[in-house]
């Protein structure tokens, strides 16, 4: 199982990154393969920083032969995505939104249909909009036909929306525990639903 951790924070070594690294640690410990994706690096190098709806349907012209296209090609073959964002005014960061808008190119191929998705968020405040940020990410994933899961796992409890934490995340024990549970959940559902992604290799 190949799981991509998407870091929506412009800070590659910040709180969101730490949560995603912990999630990937859990994925690899359970036998999965993980990849960390720093979207701000991709978006700042992009000649068109956000979708301007230049073609209908999207032809992917703005990222052809770039690192961003390579990143989208990784998503085309992944089994699961753990999407992380810092809370920015109770929603996702701008680079994450810009990155995801351009996945419109993948949508017509149903490239993310049945890919399993989980979300995690970290804010400066204890109750600073982590859950609304999770919901924004989940909505973004639903629109690609992804199978969105929360942080429930048989060895723990039924969970809630995903993993929420307060900065500094290394001091947020519960936030890190929920991150590990979320990772387990994404992996187990990805394993159980592998057959639902067969359309990607069958050219459907
Ligand atoms: C533009 C901006 C908006 C923010 N809005 C919120 C907010 O609404 N609620 C909150 O709790 N923290 C907010 N924060 C704080 C970040 O969510 C917090 O610092 C987070 O831990 C950063 O994660 P990072 O270290 O991965 O970049 C905001 C920070 C920035 C830069």
Could you characterize what this model shows?
This protein is of the alpha/beta class. It has one domain: Flavodoxin domain (Rossmann fold, 3-Layer(aba) Sandwich), CATH 3.40.50. It contains seven helices and six strands; from the N terminus they run βαβααβααβαββα. It has helices spanning 15-29, 39-44, 67-77, 94-101, 104-107, 130-142, 173-192; strands at 2-7, 33-38, 80-86, 116-123, 147-148, 163-166. Strands 1, 2, 3, 4, 5 and 6 form a six-stranded parallel sheet that branches. Strand 4 (116-123), helix 6 and strand 5 form a beta-alpha-beta unit. Helix 1 packs across helix 7 (173-192). The longest helix is centred in the last third of the chain and has 20 residues, at 173-192. The protein is globular. The two termini are 21 Å apart. The mean pLDDT is 97. Bound molecules: flavin mononucleotide. Flavin mononucleotide is lined by residues 9, 11, 14-17, 86-90, 122-125, 128-129, 167.
User: Radius of gyration, Cα only, in angstroms?
Assistant: 16 Å
Average pLDDT across residues? 97
Helices and strands, in order, run as EHEHHEHHEHEEH
Strand content: 15-25%
**Overall shape:** globular
Helix and strand arrangement:
Elements lengths: L1 E6 L7 H15 L3 E6 H6 L22 H11 L2 E7 L7 H8 L2 H4 L8 E8 L6 H13 L4 E2 L14 E4 L6 H20 L12
Helix pairs in contact: 1-7
Flavin mononucleotide binds next to helix 1 and strand 4.
Protein name: Multimeric flavodoxin WrbA
Pfam families: FMN_red
Organism: Desulfallas thermosapovorans DSM 6562
């Amino acid at each position: 199982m190949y799981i991509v951790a998407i870091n929506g924070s412009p800070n590659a070594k910040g709180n969101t990154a730490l949560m995603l690294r912990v999630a990937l640690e859990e994925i690899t410990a359970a036998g999965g393969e993980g990849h960390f994706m720093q979207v701000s690096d991709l978006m700042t190098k992009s000649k068109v920083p956000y979708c301007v709806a230049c073609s209908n349907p999207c032809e992917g012209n703005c990222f052809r032969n770039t690192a961003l296209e390579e990143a989208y090609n990784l998503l085309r073959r992944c089994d699961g995505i753990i999407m992380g964002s810092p809370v920015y005014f109770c929603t996702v960061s701008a680079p994450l939104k810009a990155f995801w808008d351009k996945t419109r190119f993948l949508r017509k191929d149903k490239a993310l249909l049945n890919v399993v998705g989980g979300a995690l968020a970290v804010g400066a405040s204890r109750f600073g909009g982590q859950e609304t940020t999770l919901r924004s990410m989940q909505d973004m994933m639903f629109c690609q036909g992804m199978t969105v899961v929360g942080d429930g796992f048989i060895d723990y409890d039924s969970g809630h929306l995903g993993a929420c934490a307060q900065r500094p995340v290394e001091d947020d024990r519960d936030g890190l525990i929920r991150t590990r549970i979320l990772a387990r959940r994404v992996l187990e559902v990805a394993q159980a639903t592998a057959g639902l992604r067969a359309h990607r290799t069958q050219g459907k």
